Task: structure prediction
Amino acid sequence: IVDSGVHSTHDEFGGRVQAGFSAFADSPATVDEDGHGTHVAGLAAGRTYGSAKDATIISVKATQGESTSVPNLLSALNWVIHNHLSRKPIQPSVVVIASAGSYSAAVNLLLARAEKIGLHIVVSAGNDNDNACRKSPASSPSVLTVGSTTRHDEESL
Result:
């Protein structure tokens, strides 16, 4: 989970959270000051409502507060790629990124590299009612971008 961190002691995860990387020297990956990363991890791998109830969750902290900076996201993605390649044998992995920033060719290029080495990347279209094609990582052709639409494929509000 690449986000604001994941509370490793949350009951929903039953000890399945591992500290991965934090872009912030004073804030470990297993501390989530605003709860967003923990919420996202719950949707992905929580015991009650998660899609992958037995998955290991590796917390990669790239955001603090409301914004995602390109340098922090690049650092986090580099860590994810190197960590994935260092696992022997390489394990199937899904990367979830539920934050969006301005369009960045550098971010999208790194996501293409991540896809090329076998990482499956799921990202949010964003929560700001804007065109996801103008955002990174949502604009990358190497990711699965998800959003909320009506049954008629119109914006849901």
The first helix runs from residue 36 to 45.
